[in-house]
Specification:
Blueprint: H1 39-59, H2 69-80, E1 90-91, H3 92-102, H4 108-117, E2 129-132, E3 150-153, H5 155-159, E4 171-173, E5 180-182, H6 191-195, E6 197-200, E7 205-208, H7 213-225, H8 231-234, E8 248-250, H9 253-261, E9 263-269, E10 271-276, E11 282-288, H10 295-307, E12 314-319, E13 327-331, H11 337-347, E14 351-357, E15 359-362, E16 365-368, H12 371-412, H13 414-422, H14 427-436, E17 438-440, H15 441-445, E18 457-458, E19 461-463, H16 466-473, H17 482-507, H18 509-527, E20 534-536, E21 553-557, E22 563-567, E23 573-574, E24 581-582, E25 609-614, E26 618-623, E27 648-653, E28 659-664, E29 668-673, E30 687-688, E31 699-705, E32 710-715, E33 719-724, E34 738-739, E35 749-755, H19 758-765
Helix pairs in contact: 2-3, 3-4, 7-12, 7-18, 12-16, 12-17, 12-18, 13-14, 14-16, 17-18
Amino acid sequence: MPDDTDTPNPPETPGGSGPSALSGTPLYSANEKITKINVADEIKNSFLDYSMSVIISRALPDVRDGLKPSQRRILFAMGELNLNPGRKTLKCAKIVGETMGNYHPHGDQAIYPTLVHMAQPWAMRERLVEGKGNFGSVEDDPPASMRYTEARLTHLGAALMQDMEKDTVDFVPNYDDTRAEPTVFPAAFPNLLVNGGTGIAVGMATNMAPHNLGEVIDGIIAQIDNPAIAIPELMKFVKGPDFPTGGMVCGVEGIKNYFHTGRGSVKLRGKVGIEQMRGGREQLVITEIPFNVNRAALEQQIAGLVNEKVITDVSAMRNESDENCRLVIELKRDAIAKVVINNLYEHTQMEVSFSVNALSIDHGKPKTLNLKELIAAYIDHRREVVLRRTRFELKKAEERAELLEGYICALKNLDEFIRIIRGSRNREEAKVKLLAFEWNRPQVEQWGVLIRSEARLLNGFYALTERQVDAILELQLYRLTGLEFDKVRQEYTELLAKIKDLLDVLAREERVMKIIKDELKLIREKHATPRLTDIVPDEGEIAIEDLIANEGVIITITHAGLIKRTNVSSYRSQRRGGRGVIGMATREVEGEQDRDALIDAKMTSGHNEVVLITHGGMSIRFKEEDARPMGRPAVGVYGIDLETGDRVVAAAIVDPSATLLVAGENGIGKRTAFDEYRIQSRGGKGIITMRTGDKTGGVVGALTVRESDEIMLITNGGQMVRTAVAPISVIGRNTQGVKLVNLAGNDKLQAIAPVVGEAAEEAAGDGGAAPAPPA
């Protein structure tokens, strides 16, 4: 058992002062105050503090200068290193070291990429840093190590810090209280709107599009002139985003959305052109890619689609890019370039969406701002900068004028001043005597000195200030000449005019706004560049038809139900009487019975005239009103009274400006004017349209044709002949005609069909309507 001197162990309670269960050491000091807290509340508060630190001090740009703290500290360090435009570049390692050691202690791996980003022309619409060496590429090649690269500020990078030494912005202690850093830059140009920005904070993110410097400045000036300007009016100046990699923005709806609300999405496309190659082939050349798209990844994506047969008309691809993009895609001989381009937009990153969230720090809080609010925030910031700069310059001018007043007093009464100074035992005694020296006000004013401070007047006498006396005592002997007096008085006169002007600026708001506009106009004149990104009308979603070549085809159907589609370009136009080419292999099918069936359907106006043509060479022309309208499943009425064994093979719409072409089984055909077909009553025997016999065979088809048309002739054996209509003779009804096609052996002409001409084909592709049937 323990003796009386032993002390029992204290209870091991949480937060107690007893020894640790593991080490035996106390958990806290004997006199330490312990407060019980709720762990959930502590975690919540700590996380909120961390979140706000990330939002305010790291991830989001300030609406006034468009910079995040890391960017601002890098640029400020470069300014302190005197890396202004025209100066010698400095190793990036030195810049990173200065930034990290003085302002941003977050490691070089956080600082150097930020520095590199501000120097990349494909990442920044207007670069803030000019880099020397390898700063990466648009193909996502990494930059060289910071010990190999050098940098300095661009003119616009320096413009962000212009007049910062004139007390235009607030400074705060840096992280270790050894020096001061600015909370914001004066920002002589609207960097946030011009360069945009991205950032991911806690629970929120920003993604702002870049814009054209000249357009943004014009918009700011317009809003200064008319503070009540509406956003649609602003859009006459600020057209939309202007990305450093160019491209095309399709449509303005997304632009309107984010200009009005701060949020929206725009469709961005790269630019691709068509170049002619030898042998009639074509190649596509991609000259601009969408913003933030990796060119090497895009090339691999296209190659993958070609290999997977998603895009089938590409024969080769190569990258001819240098500092400019040039990705060449060679097409196959029969490829349709526009179809391939549409497939690139549909299946690759040649078309992307850029989602805008205009979130930035405004008055210390994250806020999503529309275009007018962004401009207003910048105008307010520049107003504050101009006012603070004016007050600073006024203070400096007044301090200088005070010294010059003292100089003038001393120079105009030089003998008295020298007597006082020589009669003094030391500087302090001379200073006391000079401070006690009094001047009559009229005497001083006749020297051209304006008494600006009534505090220095006592009973009508003028007394020197301590600063004036110190300046007089430090005057050099050469300054005591009459010539120096004239110089001093001239400088003093100019200072008085400057002070008056500065006071006027502080007194009148319109002067402040005019200064802001004039300084922005100077920036625009020196640094604005033409727009890189085109804004084009939105074509809407790509329809499936846009991915298929828009060209004429021949659809061939056999009696056995087989079908084939062939490009019409595969059949070259031949002279009348040609042999044609194989269009489809044929085979005999047992059990066929050449029965009653629907042979044709025509679109009419309801007041057309119709011609029915039979296999035996008969025809009848009647008004379609004679065939009354009836239900869909109805059998119909007789159009022509057929002879035994005869059948209707074709129907044609009467067109007085056209002719009726009929063709026989043995390849004989002719054209006849519609005037030769008189109008008859429906259901009659009709009149001859072609004198058939062993030479012609039975009629197989008839078409309404014009001189400029082409037709396709199809035989039982699968031969197809494409021929022009013009060479086919126009002759009478009761004739046989001329040879249309040379038939081999027992082959017979099966059918005739019109070929869609190029003009009509293009009209159909453009959404044009087909010609209406003649009245």
